[in-house]
């Protein structure tokens, strides 16, 4: 992800960091929430592979010689937004995230999530790491005075369900983005926002790779590189993986410029959506703290 108001993250983890850190494991999760998949991905070869179909090695949305290199990526992002808005009402997924906060790269966090677009609603259950497992968070746009609702595990659960301002210091402690930014629709929109800003400048290299895979999902990988550090750029390199079948971005990773020539670029942030299931027919009950499958009370 990108600095500033980027896509995808999650005040619920702020709840975990600020209020609910505990090593006690909560009640065993239900309803398919007990998976903890590690994101596995590879990028297709840059050179043509004779074992692949010929069309897998053709340029993806090649730029017009007179347009900015980001324009083909922006066309893909607009297509993804249209696809999501027109055809995806809700989805569930396992979200795997890792962020650098104040110079420190945090460990991976795993969350089972439900997302509904209208009204924007999020349910989140922490699968890992173990100290966070069992924590839950709810956010429904226009409800609870704009607050998210969260609870901890172990001794911290004694505090019960706590309302928090998604953008407040407690919810945002140790987090890059609020829960209101979660989801691949927000990600696609931020791709457009940041791409439109970046195309005002040069020094941008964009490559596309067919046949990349995220947990066996075939994707097109978009790689954006700003070779020279500039204040107007938010990252040195970013990789966006767009699921070819669903036409949605399912992974984003971004890197700082290397500390010295030849050094690996430090990871800023990465977000992966795995086990995505769309159009489940979620109702208000899926985003209700009184749902008997949840542990808010």
- Chain-averaged pLDDT: 83
The total of beta strands comes to 13
Beta percentage is 25-35%
**SSE string, helices as H and strands as E:** HEHEEEEEEEHHEEEEE
Q: Detail the poorly predicted runs.
A: 1-30, 43-59
Task: Please summarize what this structure is.
With 297 residues, the protein is an alpha+beta fold.
Structural features, described:
- This protein has 297 residues and is of the alpha+beta class.
- It folds into 2 domains: 11-39 and 88-182 and 279-287, no CATH class; 41-84 and 184-273, no CATH class.
- The chain is 15% helix and 30% strand.
- The chain has helices spanning 11-18, 71-87, 169-172, 184-198; strands at 41-42, 90-101, 104-105, 109-116, 121-128, 136-140, 148-151, 162-164, 205-214, 217-225, 237-243, 248-255, 267-278.
- Strands 1, 2, 3, 4, 5, 6, 7, 8, 9, 10, 11, 12 and 13 form a 13-stranded antiparallel sheet that branches.
- Strand 4 (109-116) and strand 5 (121-128) form a beta hairpin.
- Helix 2 packs antiparallel against helix 4.
- Mean pLDDT is 83; it is low at 1-30 and 43-59.
List the topology elements.
Elements: H1 11-18, E1 41-42, H2 71-87, E2 90-101, E3 104-105, E4 109-116, E5 121-128, E6 136-140, E7 148-151, E8 162-164, H3 169-172, H4 184-198, E9 205-214, E10 217-225, E11 237-243, E12 248-255, E13 267-278
Antiparallel strand pairs: 1-9, 2-3, 2-4, 2-13, 4-5, 5-6, 6-7, 7-8, 9-10, 10-11, 11-12, 12-13
Identify the notable features of this structure and list them briefly.
disordered N terminus, 13-stranded antiparallel beta sheet, 297 residues, single chain, alpha+beta, globular, 2 domains, 4 helices
């Amino acid at each position: 992800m990108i600095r500033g108001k980027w896509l995808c993250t999650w005040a619920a983890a702020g709840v975990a960091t600020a209020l609910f850190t505990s090593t006690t494991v909560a009640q065993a999760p239900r309803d398919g929430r007990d998976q903890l998949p590690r994101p596995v991905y590879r990028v297709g070869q840059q050179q043509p592979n004779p074992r692949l179909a010929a069309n897998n090695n053709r340029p993806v949305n090649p730029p017009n010689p007179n347009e900015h290199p980001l324009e083909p990526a922006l066309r893909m992002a607009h297509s993804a937004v249209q696809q999501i808005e027109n055809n995806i009402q809700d989805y569930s997924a396992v979200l795997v995230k890792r962020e650098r906060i104040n110079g420190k790269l945090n460990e991976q966090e795993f969350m089972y999530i439900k997302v509904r677009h209208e009204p924007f609603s999020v349910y989140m259950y922490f699968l890992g790491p173990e100290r966070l497992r069992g924590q839950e968070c709810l956010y429904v746009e226009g409800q609870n005075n704009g607050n998210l609702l969260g609870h901890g595990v172990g001794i911290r659960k004694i505090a019960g369900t706590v309302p928090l301002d998604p953008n407040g210091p407690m919810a945002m402690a140790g987090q890059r983005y609020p829960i209101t930014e979660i989801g691949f629709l927000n990600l696609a929109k931020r791709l457009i926002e940041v791409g439109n800003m970046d195309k005002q400048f040069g020094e941008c290299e964009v490559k596309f790779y067919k046949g990349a895979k995220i947990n066996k999902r075939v994707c097109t990988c978009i790689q954006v590189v700003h070779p020279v550090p500039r204040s107007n750029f938010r990252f040195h390199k970013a990789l966006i993986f767009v699921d070819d079948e669903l036409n949605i971005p399912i992974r984003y990773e971004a890197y700082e410029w290397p500390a010295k020539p030849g050094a690996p670029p430090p990871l800023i942030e990465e977000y992966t959506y795995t086990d995505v299931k769309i159009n489940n027919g979620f109702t208000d009950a899926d985003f209700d703290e009184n749902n008997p499958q949840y542990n808010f009370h």
